[in-house]
Amino acid sequence: MNKYFKYTALTAIALAAAAQAGHAQEAVTEVAEVIASPEPSEYTVWILNSLLLLIGGFLVMWMAAGFAMLEAGLVRSKNVTMQLFKNMALFSIAAILYYLIGYNLMYPGDAWIVPGYFGNIHVAVMEAVGLAPENADAIDYASTGSDFFFQVMFCATTASIVSGTLAERIKLWPFLFFIVILTGLIYPIAGSWKWGGGFLDADFGFLDFAGSTIVHSVGGWAALAGALVLGPRLGKYPKNGGVHPYPGSNLALATLGTFILWLGWFGFNGASQLAMGSIGDMADVSRIFVNTNMAAAGGSVAAMVMTQILYKKPDLTMALNGALAGLVSITAEPLYPTLGIATLIGMVGGVIVVFAVPFLDRIKIDDVVGAIPVHLCCGIWGTLAVCFTNPDATWMGQIISIVIIGVFVFVVSLVLWLILKATVGIRVSEQSEIDGLDLDELGMECYPEFVAARA
Questions:
Q1: What whole-number distance in Å separates Cα of residue 159 and Cα of residue 69?
Q2: Does domain 44-442 bear CATH number 3.30.70.890?
Q3: Mind spelling out the 3-state secondary structure of 244-275?
Q4: What is the pLDDT of residues 31-65, one digit of tens each?
Q5: Over the stretch 58-74, which tens digit does the pLDDT of each residue have?
Q6: How far is the C-alpha of 323 from the C-alpha of 297, rounded, in Å?
Q7: Alpha helices in 182-250 (DSSP H)
Q8: Residue ranges per domain, the chain?
């Protein structure tokens, strides 16, 4: 709609309404004032900001489908239903725990002094129905509902990262109990140190725009701790050395999952601008979108080229993880880079994945879908890369913050996994692993007519 048509339409509507009331002249004056005003009203800004968070939120929610499809494609056929079930369960658990505990723990406001900080644990509360404009001050830039909706999707994304790493050998209920603690306590506490106005933000000037560390590395550290305690899949690392590959069941699903994640990432990064009520904000959101896209493309191309050089054939799974690596890498700072720099940041992420995946195999850490290289390794890289483009970033502030969050999440996760292992156990029996978790844990298969033998 061009300006002439828009303003003519506004004028016609206003005049038609005013003519019935006998106030045509007043309507013309009012419309002229609206057209002449270069800035939207504070109510318009509040509405547009809320809309951005809601749109971003449902795009990030769509990433849950991406994780489910990616994992379903990269595990063996006998474990697909379990991965789908875990992704449905962890998303639902994350939503409930973030409502009960996480949201207010992550954003404590002025309640930073212990026990005031932990005294801030209570359920999230939305605005009243039919909120009056004068009462829209719980969150000054947008509605509480839109903010909660957007933030809860980040919490669920953190949980999704853990699922793929530990696939094909972990018991269902101990895994879900870990997700309760991760989404209710671990992630909100780590997030509060930066996004909740905590000490990493105040004392170290830590910069992490959309969560290369707060979301992706947190999930990666939790996954790494779980993989160390759980151990590799049966036969993955034979006693005589080497690595026994376990090809995924459906690379079409894995590819679909990657493109879904790629799409969802525009909401993940773009809506983290948290505002689109001005020309500057909207321009920045647009810039974030294109930088996010270029980083993903760079990561994928880099992985394609590197696998061709190293293995004489390009590897589709590496190309998929290369795209995700680029996305994670740009997440810490998608605004400041130029298109070229964003592409280079993503390319470095793609190269990291190509080398990190076999490195984990060499040290016998079994990561089924490559989540640790993508989310942990590239999360660290992306957080450091902020220093190359954002003039407010400092190497010391970024490194110290990475270390503090890494130690906190890894140690707490490791202790929790060890407690679960010593009490209820976290690994299925050998026979269950051979038969597949679909049958043993759930009693159903994703592809019953195609599974002729167990391997």
A1: 15
A2: no
A3: CCCCCCCHHHHHHHHHHHHHHHHHHHHHHHCC
A4: 455 444 556 677 889 999 999 999 999 999 999 99
A5: 999 999 999 999 999 99
A6: 6
A7: 187-192, 199-204, 218-230
A8: 3-36, 44-442
